[in-house]
Each structure stands twice: as structure tokens, then as C-alpha cells.
Automatic annotation (TrEMBL):
Transmembrane spans: none
Record protein name field: ABC-type quaternary amine transporter
One matching Pfam family: ABC_tran
Gene Ontology molecular function, alphabetical: ABC-type quaternary ammonium compound transporting activity; ATP binding; ATP hydrolysis activity
Source taxon at top rank: Bacteria
Organism whose genome encodes this protein: Hydrogenispora ethanolica
Domain ABC transporter per the UniProt entry, residue ranges: 1-233
Cross-referenced PROSITE patterns: ABC_TRANSPORTER_1, ABC_TRANSPORTER_2
Keywords, alphabetical: ATP-binding, Nucleotide-binding, Transport
Key word Transport present: yes
InterPro entries in the cross-refs: AAA+_ATPase (IPR003593), ABC_SmlMolc_Importer (IPR050093), ABC_transporter-like_ATP-bd (IPR003439), ABC_transporter-like_CS (IPR017871), Mo/tungstate-bd_C_term_dom (IPR008995), P-loop_NTPase (IPR027417)
SMART domains membership: AAA
Catalytic class of the enzyme: translocase
E.C. number(s) listed in UniProt: 7.6.2.9
Amino acid sequence: MNEILLQMAVQKKYPEFRLQAELGVAQDEFFALVGPSGCGKTTLLRLISGLERPDSGRIILGGEDITKLPPSRRRIGMVFQDYALFPHLSVYQNIEYGLKVQRLPGKERRKRVSELLALFHLEELASRKIDRLSGGERQRVALARSLAPRPFLLLLDEPFSSLDFLLRQQLAGELKQWQKELGATFIFVSHQQEEALALSDRLAVMKNGRVVQIADPRTIYEEPVDSFVASFFGEANLLPVRVTMDPGAKLAIAFEDTRLAHFEYTPEPPGQKCTPGDYWLVVRPEEIVLETESRSGISAEVLNLDYLGYLVRLDLLIGATRMRALVGKEHAFLRPEERVSCRFRLNKPRFIPRNGYTG
Ligand SMILES: Nc1ncnc2c1ncn2[C@@H]1O[C@H](COP(=O)(O)OP(=O)(O)OP(=O)(O)O)[C@@H](O)[C@H]1O
């Protein structure tokens, strides 16, 4: 990881909400903030940008304590959900705006605006007024404008929320490319878990004003710290199991409903350490495999089937637990109440102690 650019530990209290967050973001990193509505993502961005002051704590940017600096002196750019562009100005003038405020000489200003117009494919729209642009074009202008003053850090709060699905996907892909090309540091708030996983180098998952886990997308998905994170990203089936230690360092895992099945698993370093006890076993829908040849697996009843085109989504009843499975479309002919045999394809079983939050 590169050098740390932003380091913060802050507290902020509102009458009915308390934020207590600590995080570090590296230079050139694409960092995402995710979590359910009201968990404090926007408040955290506002604290970083200076639009809000923390009650206590410090924010260090590029080695400088910026906790008490006004927003204009922080060298932090922001792209909001509504873009906040100037409708009466042209694309060119919008991008140039921050450079005029910075009193950059005319020649340098023109050079920078031209570079950004080229990077964001806006050259032909340079003289157009904002109110005559499409949503996607406005989005690009907003990004170019906020990057023009070369901020240390760019904060993006749900920048695609007003765009339709296809455009959103296209721009999200481009955003990542621009970020890498520019060597810029982004903190990105998204409501779309999949988007955040696809774009970011690392994510912070928040809940009730606290950061619950910070890790790269793969660790977040495959090694969630608790059942909240497991359920927040993609669907997670949480199966109650009891783990007992076998001689030979094997774990014997018995499903709560012991009529179902036992299986054995040898934890391998650096795999998760697991002591005997009661756990939730995290099984992702794509980790459930239907057996067509043999019926030696775990018996399940089909409750519901949704045909998704490329895959089939099944609701299965395994013992007393309802589980979601994603299987190949060769299973599209299954019907409710049919019995199937399945097994779990768990490369790295993930156990969450059962005394915690259960989502
Ligand atoms: N100025 C304020 N005064 C009082 N309460 C506030 C203020 N700003 C935010 N809050 C409260 O703080 C909590 C967190 O709000 P915030 O906007 O940070 O959440 P969020 O995670 O960005 O939510 P969303 O995903 O819905 O945008 C909410 O309960 C909100 O009502």
C-alpha cells in the first residue's frame, strides 16, 4: 500500500446520532464507504471536507492537521449527488471556475481545462450550457470541475444516483480508469454494494456511526467480520452449526439439525482459527451446488424458483433453515416441493460466533 494520505479519528454527536470513526486512506487509493441508510457516510464526508466540524478528534491530510481549516483551504474536491454545477455557465467555464478562484494564470488555466476536456471526452461540448447536457455528460463535467484544482483528495457522494442503470455501469467503469490515469485519491460513497466492490481498492463498512470492517473487496466478501457484513454484501445464508474438535486437528461440523449432515474440514494456515462452539456458517448462494448424479448430499426442498436468464435462483429449505441458492439454468425445470440433493462448495469456510448480531 502507498503512503497514508488521510488519517482520521473523530467523534461527532447529533441529538439522535453519534459518529465515532477511525480510518486511514492511502495515496492513489480508491476507497469506498458503504453501509445502510443513516449509518453516517455523508456525515463522515462532510467532516473530511470541513463542511462539518468534529466534536473531538483529528483529521490529518498529507501530514497536515486540517481539523480546524475551513473547506476552501483543505484542497479537497467534492462531487455531490446533484453535481451543483452552474447552469448559466458553459462546460468550459464550469471546469475553469475553481482555477479562477485559485487565481491561476490564464495560460496555465487554458492548458488544464483542455487536458480535462480531452480526458472526459467533453471537447465538442465545451461551449454548451449545462442545462443542455444529458445526465451522463453533466456527471463528467462535475468530475472534471472538481479535479481541475488538483485536489489532494476527491470525495464522491453517490455520484451516479440520478443516472439509469446502463449509464451508471458505463461511467462507473470509466471512473475507475480515470482515477488510475490521474493517480488521484478518491473516497466514494455508494449505496450499491456490487458497485463498491467492483470499483474500490478498499472499503470501509459502516453501521450505526461506526466503522465495522476495513479491507479489500475480496476479504470483505470472503471473510466478513460478523454476520452484519456477511449479509450486507450479496446474499449470505447463515446456517447454525456446532463445531467440535476432532483428534488430528480436524473440525467436525454438525448442523444444528443433526439429521442433516456432518462434514469435516481441516483448517489450513492462514485460514481462520476456530475453537469448538456454536457458529453461523456463512454459505453464499453460489456455493450451493445441486447434485444430479448422486443423492448422497444434503437433502433440501425447493420452495421457490426464479428464472434469471443466465442463472436460476432457488429458495431451498434445508432442515429448518431457508437458504438462497444460485445454480445453472439446467435446473430451470425444478418445481416447488420437489426434493433435491445438494452440497456446499466452500473453499474457505467462514464461521461467525453465534452470540453476536444476527442481522
Ligand atoms: N445536521 C444534522 N443534525 C442532526 N442530525 C443529523 C444531521 N446530519 C445528519 N444527521 C443524522 O445523522 C445520521 C447519519 O446521517 P448521514 O446522512 O450521515 O447518513 P448516510 O449513511 O449518509 O445515509 P444515506 O445513505 O441515507 O445518505 C442520520 O440519522 C441523520 O438524521
